[in-house]
Specification:
Length: 248
């Protein structure tokens, strides 16, 4: 077990850990790569780091308050709990963006569509998901995947005979599912991917009216005593309906 000694203490030219950390957090950075770029003067419109704040705080304060880069750079009130890499990538691919420029324009919007789905996406996924699955822009955006067109995909999905949006979510999340495992070239959010190229709703996507020939059942129907949820079953972690689209 490492223990601090007299010789481990920071030199007097450095500020105390707490004061230095307060200054570091004022730069509104989030990743160690950004801090290193700041130290090198490579970030525009950012004042130089004061001389009494060490460029290598992870070493200088190793035994005197250091808790990691997130703690050093981001105040607890400003931290975000981002979606897992694979969930985020599935959503992003459904946006059908083509370039990094398209991504930056999308993520820079005031109310990007992922808020509606309670998906948390980082502005800089290449930093956030480093060593967590990130393999480059073509993989993130899905431009290296040959996705099927709307009619071909819908025909296949109908053959699987999904009956609920929950079944679809399990299928996309690689959970144990009687419908198998979703192929890479099928969009996890078809309502986004095909919004302007054929999408007519979940009933049509699943083909419910085709295999419920003896009933008038649709996804719009509710169990007795149930009420529609405002999320419409689109939010995986909805506190009200748990993603079912209705509640009692």
């Amino acid at each position: 077990m490492n223990e601090a000694t007299l010789w481990d203490q920071p030199e007097q030219k450095w500020l105390s850990f707490e004061k230095a950390r307060d200054i570091a957090r004022q730069y509104k950075l989030a990743y160690p790569e950004e801090w290193k770029a700041l130290i090198k003067g490579e970030i525009e419109n950012k004042e130089p780091v004061p001389e009494d704040v060490p460029p290598n705080p992870d070493k200088i304060y190793k035994y005197f308050g250091w808790k990691g880069w997130t703690d050093w750079l981001v105040h607890p009130d400003d931290r975000k709990d981002y979606s897992t890499f694979y969930q985020a990538r599935e959503f992003v691919r459904s946006l059908r963006l083509r370039t990094k420029k398209d991504w930056m324009e999308y993520i820079g919007q005031k109310n990007p569509v992922h808020f509606k789905y309670r998906i948390q996406l980082p502005t800089k996924p290449w930093f956030e998901y480093k060593n967590k699955g990130w393999e480059g822009w073509s993989d993130w955006l899905g431009t290296n995947v040959q996705f099927k067109d709307f009619k071909t995909t819908r025909k296949f999905i109908r053959s699987r005979k999904f009956r609920t949006i929950r079944d679809w979510k399990d299928y996309c999340n690689v959970k144990t599912s009687k419908h198998g495992k979703k192929a890479k070239n099928i969009y996890a959010f078809p309502d986004i991917a095909f919004k302007n190229s054929g999408w007519k709703g979940w009933d049509d996507w699943f083909g419910i009216s085709l295999f419920n020939k003896n009933t008038n059942e649709t996804l719009s129907d509710l169990p007795e005593g149930a009420r529609h949820c405002r999320c419409k079953g689109l939010i995986y972690t909805c506190d009200v309906c748990d993603g079912k689209g209705y509640y009692f």
